[in-house]
Amino acid sequence: MISAIPVSGWPDPQVRRPRIRTREVVAFAAAKFLHSGTLRVRTVDMRLLRLSSAWLTGVVLTLSSSSAQDKPEYIFGTTVVDTSGLQGRVYHLKPGTHALPKFEQLRPVGSIYTTSLNVWPQNFDQGFPNISDRFEWFAIEYTGRIWIETSGHYRFSLLADDGAKLYLNNQVVIDNGGAHGSYAISGSATLTRGVHEIKVEYYQGPRFTVALVLAVSPPGEPWRIFNMNDFKPPNDPDQLQKGEISDIRPTTQ
Description:
Elements (H helix, E strand, L loop, with lengths): L4 E2 L15 H15 L2 E6 L14 E5 L22 E7 L17 E5 L3 E6 L14 E11 L3 E10 L2 E5 L2 E6 L6 E9 L2 E11 L4 E9 L6 E2 L19 E6 L3
Antiparallel strand pairs: 1-11, 2-3, 4-5, 4-7, 6-13, 7-12, 8-11, 8-13, 9-10, 9-12, 11-15, 13-14
């Protein structure tokens, strides 16, 4: 059975009782600060970290804005085309949808672009500027290509509210689907050097809270926010080759 745990256990949801190292929490706090510019870590007491419905118990991460203009205009991506990033096709869903749709049966209403999926749990009511004012009952299909320089076993963690899935080379690595609050599920796979297709499917049901955060832990490295800029291919096209995936391991209990 795939293990689904509250966001309190993230970024390392591969164990029943989270064993989160201080440097990992600090790293994710720093990543969140760089994303929002308003992170304040009020309390860090590693002895208090335990699995609960609170978000990062013992580590209170407060996002605040000093003024209304500090609120980011774009949450899931911008309309500025970025061919080296993720392209997210936005879809409208029928009210009452409680699972990821079959995207091939839908027609997108527009596209957005981003280099990372770093949407922490928050209220979402602004829709998609220049595309749609929909802030509930929508779905996004992100696709892109990444370059793996160092072969090895890569760990991934996908936090979502509502459901999401991570695919690598058209194979499911993380299935965090369904209608639920902010939950993280991890998975891992062995990737060889070369180009790999990446896809993240996401959907939001009823208003208002959303979340979509993809993290990665390359071989021998700590967790960090996944960023397409860290996986750019070589400039020389003659060096490009197709990578292979194997040994997919969903988190189990």
